[in-house]
Amino acid sequence: MTGDRVMLDGSRPFQERVRHLRDAWALNGRGRAFLVSGTSFFAVYCWSLNYRIGDPTAPAYDAELAEFVAASYELNGGSAGWNAMLNGRETCSTCHDWYRLENLGICTGCLRHTCYGCGDHERCAGELL
C-alpha cells in the first residue's frame, strides 16, 4: 500500500508523514491506497491514542485524522484485528528478546519495536510510543 511506503520512509518527521497520508487519503476519495497496515498501522494507531480532537498538544490531530485512523483500524480487522496484532510476537530491535507486541513500544522516528527496558534509541529523534 502507498500509505505503508510513506510511513516507513523516515526521511520526514512522523507527524508530517501522518498529515501527508491524511491529506492524500481525503483528496483521493478516502480509498484504501493511503490507509496503513501492519507496523505502520501500529505506529499511527498508538500515536493516535495519545491525542484527542481539539488537544492543543497534537497539532496534526483533527476530525479528518480521526476518520483516517478509524478507516485504517477497520482495514486491519477492527477490534478483532487489533487484539490479534497485540497478541502477536515481535523482537525488540535493541536487545532482540521476543515479546508480545502489546509489551513493546514503537519509535516514531525509525518505526522499530523496542521493549521498555531498552527505552529510547540513542541516535533517533523519534518518540517511543
Structure description:
The protein is mainly alpha-helical. Helix content is 43%, strand content 9%. It is built from five helices and four strands. The protein has helices at 2-8, 14-27, 38-49, 63-75, 78-87; strands spanning 89-91, 98-100, 104-106, 113-115. The strands form two sheets. Strands 1-2 form a two-stranded antiparallel sheet. Strands 3-4 form a two-stranded antiparallel sheet. α1 crosses α3 and α3 crosses α4. The longest helix has 14 residues, at 14-27. The model has no long low-confidence stretch (mean pLDDT 89).
Short description:
This protein has helices spanning 2-8, 14-27, 38-49, 63-75, 78-87; strands at residues 89-91, 98-100, 104-106, 113-115.
Order of helices and strands: HHHHHEEEE
Q: Helicity, in percent? A: 40-55%
Structural class: mainly alpha
- Alpha carbon gyration radius: 14 Å
Q: Tell me the span between the first and last alpha carbons.
A: 23 Å
The biggest sheet, with number of strands, parallel, antiparallel or mixed sense and barrel status, is:
2 strands, antiparallel
**Strands in their spatial order, largest beta sheet:** 1-2
Beta percentage is 5-15%
Number of helices: 5
Spans of at least 5 consecutive residues whose pLDDT stays below 50 are none
Form type = globular
